[in-house]
Each structure stands twice: as structure tokens, then as C-alpha cells.
Design brief:
With 132 residues, this protein is mostly helical. Helices cover 63% and strands 0% of the residues. The protein is elongated and about 40 Å long. About 15% of the residues have low confidence.
């Protein structure tokens, strides 16, 4: 019968650590997963708009640069395993801004009202309202 020595215990502990440590940050929470999926969807929309000649290559490059920055931030948060609600909301707002810009650049932005005023609400307000 073999005795259980501290050396054997140390070897077993080290082996267990080597197996589990690479997977410690591999779990992305629901916020991170949702954000990464939305980022991928916006990136797909940018590529589709560029292939359909709905946006110019320089517009696509600018949008994809912004999306890749957001993707890096989301991937980092996923590796860390946690994302604070404030950071999630901030990244989501930035992604929404990129998505809105894509829709505006492709001409598929949502207009409020008849569209006769360029989408400003209520009708009659211009792009400089309320500044003058």
C-alpha cells in the first residue's frame, strides 16, 4: 500500500491548478454574452451595408473601428468574468450610437412623424433647435 506523502499531495494540487486556471476566466456572464452578440450583429450589418453599396468604404471603416473598440472592451470584461452594470450600460449606449449612425448612413433610420422635417420631433423643429 502506498503512503500519501506531502510530496504526492503537492504534485496533485499543482496538477489540479494547471488544469483549472486556464478555464477560470472563460465564463462570460449574461451581460457580456449579450453585448458581444449585439456587437457581432452590428458588425454584420456594417459588412452587409458595405457589400450592398449602401455606405462608403471610409464610413464602413470608421464604424468598424468603433465596433472593434467596443468588442475589445466586451471581450476583456468577459475574460475578467464580471462587468459592472454602469460599464455595461455605457458600452451598450456606445453600441447604440454606432448602430444609429449605421442606420442614418444607409438611409434606414427611423423617422418620427411624416419625415417632412427630416425626422425632428415635433414637426417644425430643425437641427439647431433649441439653440436658435
Amino acid at each position: 500500500m502506498r503512503s500519501f506523502t506531502p510530496k504526492t499531495f503537492t504534485t496533485a494540487t499543482l496538477a489540479a491548478l494547471l488544469v483549472t486556471v486556464p478555464f477560470a476566466g472563460a465564463y462570460a456572464g449574461p451581460r457580456e454574452t449579450a453585448l458581444i452578440n449585439q456587437i457581432e450583429s452590428v458588425d454584420t450589418g456594417i459588412r452587409a451595408a458595405m457589400q450592398a453599396n449602401r455606405i462608403k468604404p471610409d464610413e464602413a471603416r470608421d464604424l468598424r473601428t468603433q465596433v472593434s473598440q467596443l468588442d475589445r472592451a466586451a471581450q476583456k470584461a468577459a475574460r475578467d468574468g464580471t462587468m459592472r452594470a454602469t460599464r455595461y450600460q455605457q458600452l451598450l449606449r456606445q453600441l447604440d450610437d454606432v448602430s444609429q449612425r449605421l442606420r442614418a448612413d444607409t438611409g434606414s433610420a427611423f423617422l418620427i412623424g411624416s419625415g417632412g422635417d427630416g425626422g425632428y420631433y415635433p414637426n417644425g423643429y430643425g437641427p439647431n433647435y433649441p439653440k436658435g
